[in-house]
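Before the break, one more example. Copy the sequence into your notebook; we will annotate it together after we see the structure.
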Amino acid sequence: MLPFTLVFIGLASGDGIEPSISDTYFTSAGDFFVGALCAIGIFLWAYKGYELLEHEKVADWVIARLAAIGALGVAFVPTLGVITDPLPLAHRLFTAEVARVIHYGFATMFFVCLAIFCLVLFPRTDATEKMSEGKIYRNKIYRWCGGVLVIVIVLMGAYGWYFKNLAPEEQELWKGSSWIFLLESIGVIAFAISWLTKGRSLRSLQNLANRFRCSKA
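Here is what the structure looks like once it is written out:
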């Protein structure tokens, strides 16, 4: 719900849709943005996941805590979209350029960890057990979502490189575009689908809908 809520707050307040999710830090949606990322970060830090299998090297909780650090870093080391008084703490400690690099580093770590969840951790199965048809189907969903996340990460990196190499006057034309916001939203939604599939929440919702239809019949 994060990207949808940010869009709603932006349109309702007159701020509009920002170039990226991170840029909402300095808008009317800023408190919600920081609060949501803190909640996500705390939840991921507390997540323990499954026991490490014999052939595996990295446990769920390690990736979850790296993702948590990434989420909290994005929240507390914002990109300096506008000059504010007082400045955010990160910009009192670092120059704007250093803070921007740190912010992008945390954002990259966050999205890469989400992709690892989808492509590596969620599909894993005990080699001694035969996969059920349901597990095979769910693994396809995880890998599709992970593939979407990888594409999103690559496209955001390509956009950043392309933007950086534009002439200053061309950069001004691209500054108001919301391509990064769109890509980030797609990535977040892809992970949400994967996470809900892993937690069997989607199946529970489908069962609830089926019971509702049966009761009406």
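Residues 133-164 form the longest helix (32 residues). The chain has one domain: 2-48+55-216. Try to locate both features in your own notes.
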